[in-house]
Structure formats: C-alpha cells, structure tokens
C-alpha cells in the first residue's frame, strides 16, 4: 500500500499512507512487531522511493547547516511523510503503553538469565544472541521450541571464544549496511530493504530497549526470515549470472531446497503433539529445565503421573532453584496421593521465594504464578481438619504479598466456609469481586455464603447475577432452581423449571436434574409428568434413594399402592434402613394387602433402628390393635404418647383402645391378648374337659 503513496508527478498520495497506518495499527494489536513496519516504510521512502544515498543526504545536510542552500521541495515532501509516519508510531506506542498500564510484564531470572546478570556478562551475552539468531536463519537445523533458562550459557568473560562469533557478525552486518546506504544501484537497494526486514522487526526482541521474557525465540524470526530470503535470492542471482558459477549455483540451490524440504517434513512430526514437540527440543538442549517441565505437563495431561514425576524431578536437578519445577513435583505427588512428599516439595518452593524488601513492591519482583505455591500448599494441608488455621495463614500471606491476588481470596473464602466463618468468607468473596466483577463463579460462591447465612433472598440475587454473566452456569442454574423450589412460592416455579430444563441440557447424565424436575411437577400436582421425570432419574441412577422413595410416594398418593410396592422393594434392597420407605411399605401392606405380618416386620425394624421414631412406633401399636392384643397396644401407645405428648391422634387412638378394654371388662370377658384368643367362658369349658379326662384316667388305673 505504501509504495503507491508517490504520485506520477512526485506528489503525495495520502490514501495509501492512511491505509498503511491503519494496517500497522491492526498489526500492532496482533503483535508488537507490527509497529516496526513504520520504520521499514521510512527507509523505503528515503532510499528507495526518493533514491537518496547516505553521501547525498550528508552533503545536503552540511550545505543547509552552512547556509549554502535550502531544503529541496522533494525532501520537504519526504520529511512531511516521515513526520506523519513517526507521529502515527508515537500514537500507537502511547496506546500500547496504556493497554499494559505503563507496566512491563513480570519476568523471572529463569526466563532470561542475561537480563538480571551483571556487567559485562549481560552485554556480552545479549550481543552474542545476535549471531545465534543469524545462525538459526542460515542453518535452521537444531530447532528448539523454547530457548529460555540455561539453553545458552552466559558469556561472563571477554576471553570467551564465542565473542569471536559476535565480532564476525558485526563486521558482516556493518559491511552490508555501508554497501546498501552508500551506493544507489539496484543491488544496494535490494540489500538495504532486506536488511530493514531483518533488523527492524527484530529490534523489539533484541533486549536493546527493555528486557524480554526469552533468550531466543524462533517466532520473532518469521519476519526477519523474509529479509534473509531476499539476501539469499539476491546472492544466488549474482552467482548464477556468472557463467562459470551458473551450474554450480543451480546445484547448490537444488540442494538447499531439497534439504530444507526434508527438514520441514521431519519437523512436522515434531509438532504432532505437545509431548513430541518438547521431547524433540530435549534432543537439542538438555540444560533447559522448562523443557523437562513441559514434557512433564504433557504426560500429566494424559494422567501419566508416574512418568510426569520423573521429568519434573529432572527439571529440579537441572535448575535446583526453579520454583515452578518444585511446584510441579508437589502437584504430581498430590495427584499420586502422596501428601507428605507433596508438602515437602511445596515447602522447598516456598523457601525459594524472594524475601519481602521493605519499601519495595513484592509483586514487581515475582512471577504471579509462583505465588500459587501458597495456594497449593494451603489447599493440601487444609484436608487435615486440625490444620485449617495454618492454611488460612498461608492464604493471608499470599494476599499480603499481592493484594490483587484474586485466587487467594477465592480459596480463602472456601476455607472460611469450611471453618464455619460465613461472615469472613463473605468479605473474602466481596474483595475478589472488587477485582473481577465479571466472574460468574465468584457471584455463585457468594450466593452459597448467603445460603449459609440463612439469607435465601440475597443468595437468589447473587445466583441471578451469576446467570446474567453466564446464562448456562450449571451450578448456578441447579442451586438457584433448588432455592426457588424450597421457597414454596408458586410464582417462582415456572422459572425454576426453566432453569432445571437448561441444566439437564448442559448435564443430560445427571439424575439430580430430572429428580428435581419431578419434585416440581409433584408440587404442581402434575402426576404424570412427575412420574416421567422420576423414572428418568432412576434410569440414570438405578439406586437413587430420593427418586425411588418419591416415585413410590407418588404411586401411593394416586391410589396406585400396588405399583408402589416393587419400587419400595427396590429402595429397601439398596437401603434396608430407609425409615420412610419402611413406613410407607408397612402402611400399604396393612391397609391394601391386609398383610399384618409383613407390615409388622416393617414397623418392628423401624423401632429396632430408632426406638424414638414416633410414626413407626405408632404404626406398630396399630398392628397390635389389629391383632386384638389390646394390652400390648395400650402399653405401646402409652410409650408413644410419652415421646410425642402433644400429638392428638395418638391420644385419640389410646382412648379407643382403652375404651375397648373397658367394654370387654364390663361384659365380664378377659381382654384378648392377640387375634384368635379365647374368651373367658370358652377357657372355663376347656378347663372342665381337661378335669374330666384326668378323672377317667384315674378310674382305669384303679380297675387294673
């Protein structure tokens, strides 16, 4: 676009310039290197479009300074273009600084060891990295996905042999720059543009203006490789134009293309997965702890914790002071349920953390992810109920080091709930929300706190806030619907149903969603719909305790007691001590099937499990009454009334039993102890018959 900014009459065409500036802005938003295109445009304008050379510019400048001439009009046009381009660049830089809030990213000494080294190691190493990058362009054989940490040892002495590579690089670069700006031929212009594409996009990654988070990064060589290819192509063109070297140049070109094609093909297999990528990097460099960690992460993602642990341990051997490596070891031990070893690893990582320096911001000197060592250690030890206070101290320590550490507030809120401190938990979550009000999980957690505080209306408000941010937040959908259902408000039931239906769309294999839909339908007297939902819940979870009981209860309430019995049998097969199930089964057996013995077994089991179960004991009393064992029924009801002295129905039944007993006594009959017992006259007749038989036996003996 920018190449069209010069009109046929050497006038300025502003549209291509505006388009170029817009594209530079878009490129900068994608990657910081995009802003360097402005520098390339400036070089193109001066040396290519206007055709100036350095000697011409130098002579013109001297004449103007000495007052021997004025600025040519064409040069004024060039200056105007350059001013527009530079102003646009400055504006983009200001915007970029505002985006990062005037703070550079936090890097550790492991990311770029040279950046924290002393003089002269810092300068010597940074300068040596330039020929290293040039060598990667010239011979991209030993490629590595990560060049941080100990990949390239520091140059700590001027006598280091690697300094010769730095001197050779600067000599060749200086020669090419002088050649390109001194002469005006096509060859020099080609070399100049190639150098611009190599040098300018590389400047942000060169550590010249600010430290970066890597030693070498192959990705920053993508644009410079375009300039390098231009140099190679230009050099090959020069060679091939020589008659004696033409054949040889073609052979070398074919060889380069063939070898690079083979390398590209083989390299594709390295990128098959994270594991293959990082293991291929270890073939190039075994002194980078980050690579060992990354192989461990790849294995960890595959749940291969034993192998992952070996790589994480190797990382700690390669870089003993790497906090992240020790954290990885601790996390893997935790996944292997080896809590003691996990705690030891976390404590090592914690001991390696930088010490707090009075008057200096701690957050500026430590990588944010390293603070997770406090969170991980606290999460580990809080599994022990006796160490909850110790875990809380770790969370508070992390917060004191970085007051905007959101995860520390979240984890501390969870712990405080576990410690039955909902008010403090609420404060922790409110602080976290001040840092991130768009986090649906935080609003959900705060709602749970309000449930603990017995404030359902505020809990529902926070659930609703979570759902505004994330309409398909599964836990908020389910728990808010449950809260609406428990409120008993008929007005809230349609919304509760809508949320549960959305929940089962998200979690189609969770039986709880279908069960609660069934309970809602029962509340609305939609028995057929309730039956469908309950059966769906049981289908997904065949031993779903609540679903089995409520389906049986539904059958009982809709006069389908006999259909309820097999459901109750299934319930009691899985949960033989289910009191309500036993009561319901006993009622059905006694009232519908007239199976007094079966009902009695159910009620006796309830009383055996819980002698203070009023309903079970009362029903057993009714069984005694049905068996006509009035004395036992009376005694049973007296005991039951002692458990629930204000229950009117027990008093009424006791009065009925006592009335029966009194009526029998008034009639001169003994109280029958159980069903089928003989009356008093019948008992006397039997006794007379027994006496007669005894007399007959005595007479026979006398005759003998």
Textual characterization of the structure:
- There is one protein chain.
- This protein has 704 residues and is mainly α.
- Among the domains are: 2-99, no CATH class; 117-270, no CATH class; 286-352, Serine Threonine Protein Phosphatase 5, Tetratricopeptide repeat (Alpha Horseshoe), CATH 1.25.40; 353-436, Alpha Horseshoe (Serine Threonine Protein Phosphatase 5, Tetratricopeptide repeat), CATH 1.25.40.
- The protein is 69% helix and 0% strand.
- The chain is built from 32 helices and no strands.
- It has helices at 14-30, 37-49, 54-65, 73-99, 121-138, 163-182, 186-199, 222-240, 246-270, 274-284, 289-301, 305-318, 323-335, 339-351, 372-381, 388-401, 406-418, 422-435, 440-452, 456-469, 474-487, 493-506, 511-523, 527-540, 545-557, 561-574, 579-591, 596-609, 614-626, 630-643, 648-666, 680-703.
- α27 (579-591) runs parallel beside α29.
- It is elongated and about 150 Å long.
- The termini are far apart.
- Residues 675-687 and 698-704 have low confidence and may be disordered.
